[in-house]
Amino acid sequence: MTTETRARLVLVINSGSSSLKYQLVEPDAGVSRASGHIERIGEESSPVADHQAALRLAFKQLTEAGSNLQTADLAAVGHRVVHGGNEFHHPTLLDDVVVAELKKLSTLAPLHNPPAVKGIEVARKLLPDIPHIAVFDTAFFHDLPPAAAAYAIDRRLAERWQIRRYGFHGTSHRYVSEQAAAFLERSYHSLNQIVLHLGNGASASAIAGGRPLDTSMGLTPLEGLVMGTRSGDIDPSVVSYLWRSAQMGVDEIDSMLNHRSGLVGLAGERDFRRLHAMIESGDNSAQLAYDVFVHRLRKYIGAYLAVLGHTDVVSFTAGIGENDATVRRDALTGIGELGIVLDQRRNLSAGTGQIARISTDASPIAVLVVPTNEELAIARDCMHVLAGS
Ligand code: ADP
Predict the structure, then answer these.
(1) 322 annotated among ligand-binding-site residues
(2) Which positions are annotated as binding ATP (predicted)?
(3) What is the Cβ-side half-sphere exposure of residue 283, based on CA atoms within 13 angstroms?
């Protein structure tokens, strides 16, 4: 009987190529019991040889923090999976067949899905008696209208190779838009929203009455806004031009666009706190990186105001969105005619881990800072799967 009264927990795992983030979440109360981040997996000088060693280390850290997974009332292990392709648009209970399907999807997301599959395989081995559930970053955007989902390329080729705009960060866009509606005490389905998720990866979405109409990431998380190390939108001809003229191979170009572009490519620095310090000291490339980032962001905000026609709320979230008042100011200043009037004082005092309104009371569109919590959203998705809803 005691187990029934104890809070049920979900272990959320986010497994990347060289890092593993974990969090033990109590979904009902919405609290995190423990969390950790293991880095440099498989690197030469690292003591963590592979994902199995990383997960064992995570379990050890959890035990040391007072949460022994063998004795805790673990209801599920939730795995964040970046790409669900066309097949997966709901949180899915993992078995051997599903894992095999996920492996096939690795061609669509070679940088992101293989490490997630590795994390799933290792975790299923180490915790064989607990249900494992995959939650997909693409799921929320699965039903984008065709006008937003389709690329204007040869249709047969696109169908043959499943080339469409999938969208990512869906767990965060959904969570933040739901939180925004709750904060404004309005029904989720009555609001038109823009969500700006600005972290190391960055994406924007336009959501009408709970249904996404557009989002900035595409076939992969490379499209759209300027990011820490990713270029975001470029003319696709840059790829063939580099291939032809600079004799770069396709993997080299892919790696350049994903790992050595964005803020790092322009300024050699991806952290906004240090970027601001560089700008203060007169660094021109840091200024350019900042300007390109903010210009692209403004462009997407303007585009999504037009896509929605009527907008009720714009929300900023993730590391930069929640903490950088300068970026928020520069992205939204001077567009009162479009219905957005920022309260500079509120903007400066937001970002305390609490949801906050940063527009003036008279602003036709409410602007909010909303802390995201992808782990909690994943944990709650897992509980819904277990409850069969
Ligand atoms: P991800 O989960 O995509 O790795 P986060 O959402 O944690 O990223 O965001 C990380 C980024 O947020 C950092 O690279 C940094 O640029 C930015 N950031 C974090 N804290 C602050 C802060 N106090 N001021 C400005 N930027 C910040």
Answers:
(1) yes
(2) 21, 197-201, 271-273, 319-323
(3) 16
* Residues 126 and 266 grouped into a single domain: no
pTM: 0.94
Q: Is the CB of 318 under 6 A from ligand 1?
A: yes
pLDDT digits (tens, 9 = 90+) for 98-125: 999 999 988 888 888 898 999 999 999 9
Q: What is the pLDDT of residues 272-324, one digit of tens each?
A: 999 999 999 999 999 999 999 999 999 999 999 999 999 999 999 999 999 99
Does residue 22 share a domain with residue 98? yes
Q: Going edge to edge, which strands form the sheet with 211-215?
A: 211-215, 202-208, 192-198, 313-317, 366-369, 356-357
Q: Is the CB of 226 under 6 A from ligand 1?
A: no
Q: Which pLDDT tens digit goes with each residue over 180-212? A: 999 999 999 999 999 999 999 999 999 999 999
- Domain total for the chain? 2
User: Cα–Cα distance between 193 and 313 in angstroms, integer?
Assistant: 5
Domain of 319 in residue numbering reads as: 186-374
Q: Are residues 104 and 25 in the same domain?
A: yes
Give the domain CATH number at 13: 3.30.420.40
